[in-house]
Specification:
Number of helices: 8
Radius of gyration: 29 Å
Structural class: alpha/beta
Bound molecules: adenosine monophosphate, magnesium ion
Shape: elongated
Number of strands: 26
Distance between the termini: 34 Å
Mean pLDDT: 95
Low-confidence stretches: none
Oligomer: single chain
Length: about 425
C-alpha cells in the first residue's frame, strides 16, 4: 500500500523535526577535552571567543613601503627612514614625507596609512617613489587592527562542526585544546541468516556482511562512534537478545529484516521492546522499507532507531537521507543532514519509471570540470540495490523526483552527496 506511505519530503520533514527536538538537548550533552591536533571532525561544546584583536596589529599584506597615501601620490621621492619585517615589534612613527620599508605580515608603523608594493616603486639611493602611472588610495595593502575580530568577539558557537578552518581559528586564539561533545555511540546491528563475517569464507548461499563495516564507516565520517554488534540471526530470540544489548547506544541502526518477507522479523522484535514507530516505509527507491522510531526510556532517554533495508545501496541511501540528521543532532551539531547540490545531467536517464517514488540512483559527478560550468553528473550502470561495485564507482546519488520517469540530457538536476556533514 505504497500510497499510504509518506513521500520523501514528508518523511524528511518528520526526521528534521525529530532532530530539532534532539538538538534542544545540546546543553546537556557530555563534554570532553581534546588536543587541537585531533579536534577536526568533532563538534565544539563551548563557544570560542577572540582572545585578542585579529589581526592584533595593523598588518601589511605586501612586501613594499609603508607611507602616507597622499604623500606617495605626489610621485616625489620619499626617504626610507627604517625597515621592519614580520615578527618585529611595531616601529615608527613614520616621519612626515618619508617611507618605511616593510615586509608582509609586519606591523605598519604609526602614521602610515598605506603600503606601496615593492613592484610599484622606483628605489634610488635610500629613497623611493611610487611609479608615475600608479595611484594608491589610503588603506591599500593594510588590514587594520581588529578588522577581522575584536578581543572578546564571539567567533564560533557551541555546536560548530570543527574542520581545518575552525582548527586554524582556534589556534590563532591560543587554544591548544578544545572542549568538544562526546561522540554519540551508534550501535550497528546487521541481521540475516545469510551473513558471515568479513574474514570468513562464505558457504554456498552465504554472503559477507558488508553493511556493518559500511555503516560503521558512515557513522564515523558523520561524527559518531560506531559500535558494531555481532550479526543477529533471523529469529525472534536472537533479535530480542541483540536489540536489548544494542538499546544501550545513543542511536541504533539495524540493517536488514524490515521488508515484507517471511523472515523480516525486525519490526515485530522492535514492537516487543515497546518501540514507537514514526514511519514504517517511505516512497523512495531504493530504501522503501525504511523504518524510523524510538525505543522507550532506557537509561533515562529514548533511543532513536532506524531499520535500514538490507540491500547495501538502500542502507547507504537511507543512512544519508534520514539517519545522518539524527546522528548530527545527537552529536550536538548545529547543522547536519543530507547534502544536496546541483549538477548538469550529461546523458538522458532511461531507467524504468517507478511512479510515486523519489529515486536516488548511484551516479558519478565530475566536480569543477570546467570553470564557470556546473558539475556534470551521469548515472552509473548498476544491477540494482545490491550492486556494491556500482556503489563504489559512484560518488553521489542522482535524485529523480517522484513525478518524473526519466530526465533529459542537459537538465539541471539535484544530487545527494556522499558526505553527510
Ligand atoms: P533484507 O533487507 O534483510 O531483506 O535484505 C535484502 C538484501 O540485502 C538481501 O539480498 C540480503 O542478503 C542483503 N543484505 C542484508 N543484509 C546485508 C548485509 N549486512 N551485508 C550485505 N548484504 C546484506
Ligand atoms: Mg534479511
Amino acid at each position: 500500500m505504497s500510497s499510504a506511505l509518506p513521500g520523501y519530503q514528508q518523511a524528511a520533514a518528520q526526521v528534521a523535526a525529530y532532530a530539532a527536538r534532539l538538538a534542544r538537548l545540546r546543553p546537556s550533552l557530555a563534554v570532553e577535552r581534546v588536543a587541537l591536533s585531533v579536534a577536526a571532525g568533532r563538534v565544539l561544546a563551548l563557544a570560542l571567543a577572540a582572545d585578542r584583536d585579529q589581526p592584533p596589529f595593523a598588518r601589511s599584506t605586501r612586501d613594499g613601503f609603508a607611507c602616507r597615501a597622499a604623500e606617495a601620490s605626489t610621485h616625489g621621492f620619499l626617504p626610507v627612514s627604517g625597515a621592519i619585517h614580520a615578527g618585529q615589534p611595531p616601529a615608527g612613527p613614520l616621519p612626515t614625507g618619508a617611507a618605511w620599508e616593510i615586509m608582509t605580515g609586519a606591523p605598519v608603523p604609526a602614521g602610515a596609512d598605506a603600503v606601496v608594493m615593492v613592484e610599484h616603486v622606483e628605489v634610488d639611493e635610500g629613497r623611493v617613489r611610487l611609479l608615475p602611472e600608479r595611484k594608491i588610495p589610503a588603506g591599500d595593502n593594510i588590514v587594520p587592527q581588529g578588522a577581522q575580530a575584536r578581543a572578546g568577539d564571539p567567533l564560533l558557537p557551541p555546536g560548530a562542526a570543527i574542520t581545518f578552518a575552525q582548527v586554524a581559528l582556534a589556534a590563532s586564539c591560543g587554544c591548544a585544546q578544545l572542549d568538544v561533545f562526546r561522540r554519540p555511540r551508534v550501535a550497528v546491528l546487521a541481521t540475516g541468516d545469510e551473513l558471515v563475517a568479513v574474514d570468513s569464507e562464505p558457504a554456498p548461499g552465504q554472503i559477507r556482511n558488508s553493511n556493518a563495516p559500511m555503516l560503521a564507516a558512515m557513522v564515523a565520517a558523520a561524527g559518531g562512534e560506531p559500535w558494531v554488534l555481532p550479526t543477529a540471526a533471523d529469529n525472534a530470540a536472537a533479535l530480542d537478545r541483540s536489540l536489548a544489548e544494542a538499546a544501550e547506544a545513543d542511536l541504533l541502526l539495524i540493517s536488514g529484516g524490515v521488508s515484507a518477507g517471511k523472515f523480516d522479523l525486525v519490526e515485530p522484535a522492535l514492537a516487543r521492546m515497546g518501540a514507537r514507530f514514526h514511519f514504517t516505509g517511505v516512497r523512495i527507491q531504493p530504501g522503501k522499507p525504511l523504518v524510523f522510531g524510538e525505543l522507550p526510556q532506557i537509561a533515562g532517554h529514548a533511543v532513536p532507531f532506524f531499520g535500514l533495508p538490507g540491500n547495501p545501496v538502500s542502507s547507504a541511501v537511507t543512512f544519508l537521507l534520514f539517519a545522518a540528521p539524527v546522528l548530527a543532532a545527537l552529536a550536538g551539531r548545529l547543522e547536519g543532514g543530507p547534502r544536496f547540490a546541483l549538477a548538469q545531467l550529461s546523458a538522458t536517464t532511461d531507467r524504468r519509471a517507478k511512479p510515486g517514488l523519489t529515486r536516488f540512483l548511484p551516479a558519478s559527478c565530475t566536480f569543477g570540470a570546467t570553470s564557470g560550468e556546473l558539475p556534470e553528473v551521469e548515472l552509473v550502470r548498476w544491477q540494482g540495490s545490491g550492486d556494491l561495485a556500482a556503489l563504489a564507482r559512484s560518488n553521489c546519488f542522482l535524485v529523480i523526483p517522484e513525478a518524473e520517469s526519466s530526465l533529459p540530457a542537459g537538465q539541471i538536476v539535484r544530487i545527494l552527496l556522499f558526505c553527510a556533514e
